[in-house]
Predict the structure of Transcriptional regulator, TetR family.
Amino acid sequence: MMNVRRQAPNDADFIGIVAPQPRKLPRQSRAAHTIEALLEAAVQIVTADGPRALTTTRVAKRSGFAVGTIYQYFANKDELMGAMVRRHVDHVVCFLEIACRDAQGERPEAMIDALANAFIAANADRLRELHAIHAVWAKIGRAALLYEGSARLHHATLELISRVNEMRAERQEMISHALASILIGMLHALFEGGMDEALMAVTREQLSRVPIVETVDGHDRSPNYSTLHVANVVT
């Protein structure tokens, strides 16, 4: 089988890009419930019958809401699919944020395990949704849909790494960027290629290659992080 190397998006891809947002932002629990019902209906339709079967009429019928209700929140089905992606990104990032918080002060190996385990668990928890996103990604795949998740992951991993003793601020920034880039890159790869156990193993391997702490005789002998290549996924 031919190896395909996927290059994950980096921060430069997101400069000046604003991810499209739902037409109407839910401010009350009832509105949030409506959004969830519409998105879940969309996931069910796509996983059962494919992306071409996704129409506002079918979403309305499956969710129990009127077509007009859908248009209160989404201008068209592309916006609906984009919201489905953002919901999954938010779910995965929430798992990773909790992992970063809980792993603060742990050994570097434990930090890496916590990140890898959280990433795998979050995607496995929403497997049907992930399959639906994979089905529609070729149509709506945009790096901007990953922008908010990328920024949140960078912040969370920076908080995690900042607890490592005697690490320079610039190095903290480089390592947190590397970890966040790997995680968002792997999520992007899952959207493109679908759920793959081999890809999950690659996620753990890629994360473990980031040397959080590497000193010899008290002197920093870590590699040059500016040349560290991350999130080049080979399947």
Notes: The longest helix spans residues 77-102. The CA atoms of residues 114 and 131 lie 24 Å apart.
